[in-house]
Specification:
Largest sheet: 7 strands, mixed
Order of helices and strands: EEEEEEEEEEE
Helix content: under 10%
Shape: globular
Number of strands: 11
Distance between the termini: 40 Å
Length: about 110
């Protein structure tokens, strides 16, 4: 069956970095664009970034542009979200999303 498993979250100080991974299985990963989303406590889930099937094109929400980088390795069926210069407002559960499928999420907490 289709599975999306996020990892790499954790507690980091402001200005720090984390790299999230999304491991996909049960389908042909390279056939789908994928995106990262996040949901902060008490807020709606919001889109963060998208990458096309080949990885040639990416798009980011304005608040993360220049700090986050989305990428993918189709051979490994894995997508990544490199997050640099993290801010407290980046604190959220981060989800990967492909087609109609969502992962379980990974918690990112930015705090001193």
């Amino acid at each position: 069956q289709v599975q999306l498993v996020e990892s790499g979250g954790g507690l980091v100080q402001p200005g720090g970095s984390l790299r999230l991974s999304c491991a996909a299985s049960g389908f042909t990963f390279s056939r789908y664009a994928m995106s990262w989303h996040r949901q902060a406590p008490g807020k709606e889930r919001e889109w963060v970034a998208t990458i096309t099937t080949s990885g040639d094109f990416t798009n980011y929400r304005l608040s993360v542009q220049g700090r986050f980088t989305i990428s993918r390795d189709n051979a490994k069926q894995t997508a990544y979200l490199q997050m640099n210069s993290l801010k407290p407002e980046d604190t959220a559960v981060y989800y990967c999303h492909i087609d109609t499928y969502w992962g379980q999420g990974t918690q990112v907490t930015v705090s001193s």
